[in-house]
């Protein structure tokens, strides 16, 4: 291999690692999916306000513990290739705007942030359309705190992979909820 090319690759890697160390390593993903349920809106609303629904039906949510009237602690585990799963714990507050706009959001936005918003709309023939959006963001001092390859792969790649996994998990969640609500 050409020595100049090798030197160029090494310098780029060192610069990437240095920039990651200076600015931290932020990763985020936002996903939105919708599904129509064959039940009335009030039944879906009541169902979604029971936080245990998330532990039962959302892959990766390994615990949901009520901490007060409107506060709960959720632990979400993200699978990482060639590494052990990464766990994030969020202290969430229910910030619902109405019976048909259900929001669970991090009490503090740092270092990890989670927001789940379920919007319910009446549809034809006593059905309900539910749109769920999930946003997760986290920041670590170094990319290696996320995954040993993260400093090389970069924040955008890791965020894209996280978005893909959350999207798949949200799809499974909606399907599981549909089965449970029959």
Describe the structure.
The chain is an alpha+beta fold and 182 residues long. The protein has helices at 3-23, 41-48, 52-57, 150-153, 155-180, and strands at 25-37, 61-66, 71-78, 86-94, 101-106, 112-122, 128-140. The protein has a seven-stranded antiparallel β-sheet with strand order 1-7-6-5-4-3-2. It is elongated and about 70 Å long.
Secondary-structure blueprint of this entry?
Elements: H1 3-23, E1 25-37, H2 41-48, H3 52-57, E2 61-66, E3 71-78, E4 86-94, E5 101-106, E6 112-122, E7 128-140, H4 150-153, H5 155-180
Average pLDDT works out at 85
In terms of quaternary structure, the protein is single chain
- pLDDT < 50 stretches: 18-22
Structural class: alpha+beta
Anisotropy-based shape: elongated
How many strands appear in the DSSP assignment?
7
Short synopsis of the structure:
With 182 residues, the protein is of the alpha+beta class.
């Amino acid at each position: 291999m050409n020595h100049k090319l090798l030197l160029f690759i090494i310098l780029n890697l060192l610069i990437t690692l240095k920039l990651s160390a200076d600015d931290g390593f932020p990763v985020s993903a936002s996903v939105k999916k919708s599904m129509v349920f064959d039940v009335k809106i009030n039944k879906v609303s009541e169902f979604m306000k029971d936080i245990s629904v998330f532990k039962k039906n959302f892959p990766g949510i390994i615990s949901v513990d009520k901490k007060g009237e409107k506060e709960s602690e959720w632990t979400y585990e993200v699978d990482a290739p060639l590494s052990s799963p990464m766990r994030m714990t969020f202290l969430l507050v229910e910030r619902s705007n109405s019976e048909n706009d259900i929001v669970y959001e991090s009490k503090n936005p740092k270092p990890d942030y989670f927001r789940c918003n379920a919007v319910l709309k009446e549809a034809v023939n006593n059905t309900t359309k539910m749109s769920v959006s999930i946003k997760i963001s986290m920041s670590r001092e170094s990319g290696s705190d996320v995954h040993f390859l993260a400093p090389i792969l970069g924040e955008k790649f890791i965020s894209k992979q996280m978005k893909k996994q959350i999207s798949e998990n949200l799809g499974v969640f909606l399907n599981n909820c549909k089965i449970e609500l029959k």
